[in-house]
Amino acid sequence: MGKLLRYTLLFMWGTALWGQSPSAFIKDLNLSVDTTEYRWPQDLRRFKMQNFLMFQYSDALTLAQVSFKNVTSTKGFRLMPSSDYAVVDSFSSGDEQQYKIRFSDLNNSDFLALKFKSKRGDGPQFQIPLLAVHPTYVAFYPKDDVLFIGEEKVFEIITNNPDNLVLEQRWQESEGIKYRFSRDGSRVLIHLSALQAGKQILNFSLQTKKPILKKGNLVFKLPATEQEFAVKTSRLAFLDVMQEDYTLEVGHNRAYEIQLEDHPFLAMGKTYRIENQEEKGGPLIAELYTKSKLNNNKVLCLLRIYAYHRKSEGYLYIKDGDKARFITNFNSNPKTEITRISLQREGKDWQEGAVVYPGENLTVKLEGKSLHLGEITFYGAAILKGDTLVRNANEAFFRLQIPMNLETRSIEIFQNGNSLGKSLQLRDYQKARSFDFIDIRLGLQRYQLNELAKPIFYDKSLADVLISFDPKKIDAIDGLHGKQYLKLKIKISNKSGALIELQEIENIVICPASNSPRFKFYNEKDCRYEDLNLNEVINSKTYDLPEWATIDLEFSHQKDKHGGEGFTKKVRIYLERKINYNIDVSFPAGLLILKAGENDFSNFGGISFAMMAQMSFYHPRKVAKLQPFKLGAGFIALDAFNFSENSDNRDVGLVFLGSLYPTSSENRLSFPIYMGYGYLLKQKKGFFLIGPGIRVRL
């Protein structure tokens, strides 16, 4: 049933991947593993109603080479890294792409696929499912073929890939022999316990995680293994103990009340010594005191444990003095103790620690002593796969789901209802979120911070800069981020870049709103809910800033609050102006003047004096850059520096002037060309003028 569900999910997954054929994007894909090359689509394999690129491996961490050609050079694709493999090296030449990859763990990688992504950020993505097969075999060569009833013997299973075997750790029965499997490092062990005397045949067949290619077919079941054993009755009577596991608590002389199988030679009211060898002088493992017989063919006894023992280490001998009378077996274990807790989140490596977050699913590894005993529970958390993960005396793995609305800050670990003194610590997320929850308001205009990609040009009087926060965007059911710790740097400069003011605001704390599943668990003491008014923190108010002043805002997360991560966003605001007004004093010289009623221009005059109210125009595509022309109106004194009494050109007039600056208009001294029309006050006539001049900017 488990494999049917697994491959049903595999089929659904593959169907989603192959909505569009990869042939539209790449061609001639080769996967080289060991010394064999597999080609796509030539070597596609139909399996469980799905197409796969099948390949055979010998090492779970094998190194492979992936090479392919892009269909067109304008739509290039690259191989993406994955949790199932790491990209070690890459090479490209034109349409051809080569990648060297190392698989992470082929024995335990489900839904394995090569993942491709367009080299363009907005391009398509696709995957090619892979099917890894391994030529796994097992062999059984026992050292001897004799078993005794009640005796547990352990033999090694020979295999070329122990990690690809599915080992059943519960006892199974094959005719008159019980058997189960275990692991000792890279060794696979089989435990045998005979039930009936005579010739008995052990028959077992192991399942594999990854399929085996056998005569063109994919199978998960290895050929059956048979072995004949001669089973003999024990020299000593075997007395079965109802309970198999006991705990030795150092410093506590605890007596367990147990039921032991009855025997005619077992005396009542007697203390027996239990050792781990039949010969004299064995170490004392426990003492057994027989109290009374029960009507179920059992004897009520008191058992005191003095040393550790595992059933796999051999039998225990019940002795009267130094003489062995009976045999039995049980486990005496150290008290369950957790020495280390490690966590593994999706797509990440194991990390030592006990901090978990609301709503997440993760794998918890407990390390310590006697972790295989009893039922281990996590108070407040749900165990998703507690029966399917590895659990032995020294390690126990659990797949946990942390509830979103868990109120307690500590998830205590229990064994059979008793606390083990260790717990997982629940901590709310403090993940940095992109700045989509921050808006900047300038007058009636609103800008979302994370969408700003260019400077803001603001051409009105800037009454204030308001920074508003929308805490409803921080948390959602499908993604928690928690409290956001921000800081803001403010820099104000004039149009020439000179610094006007520099400020920095730290510890701006924005808490998720009531739509957050964790809202009631956040500490709101330091949270900010009102808008941030820039004029409340700066000395140079925005409405008093000069034209083309620059306001630089830099938003960033406090990385020490967000696990060393965070976003930074810079915003520049220009106080844009279209027109500039100023007063200019200039000295036009050699002007050509055409007076009303005259037919030609008068001769070049001397140096004149002009004072004008000038109107300048800023370049529409450049910052604070003036156009090379001006318009103005004012007074002009023609031939002002000619003091002879018979000068015909000396006069004062009202004039409208246009000026063209062949050099930068920002210079204090420049040489513009003037053209305009005016009215002479002394001669009472209009005139037109054109000519060069000297301009002094005040």
How would you describe this structure to a colleague?
It is a single chain. 2% of the residues lie in helices and 51% in strands. The strands form twelve sheets. Strands 22-29-28-25-26-27-24 form a seven-stranded mixed beta sheet, with no helix packed on it. The chain has a six-stranded antiparallel barrel with strand order 49-51-52-53-55-56. The chain has a five-stranded antiparallel beta sheet with strand order 2-1-5-8-7, with no helix packed on it. It has six domains: 2-133, Immunoglobulin-like (Sandwich), CATH 2.60.40; 138-209 and 216-232, Immunoglobulin-like, CATH 2.60.40; 237-334; 337-426, Immunoglobulins (Immunoglobulin-like), CATH 2.60.40; 435-575, Immunoglobulin-like (Sandwich); 579-697, no CATH class. With 698 residues, it is mainly beta. The chain is elongated. The longest helix is centred in the N-terminal third of the chain and has 16 residues, at 2-17.
* Gross CATH architecture of the largest domain: Sandwich
Name of the CATH class of the largest domain: Mainly Beta
Number of domains: 6
Taking the sheet with the most strands, its summary is: 7 strands, mixed
What is the arithmetic mean of pLDDT? 85
Strands of the widest sheet, in order across it, are 22-29-28-25-26-27-24
**What is the global morphology?**
elongated
What share of the residues lie within helices? Answer: under 10%
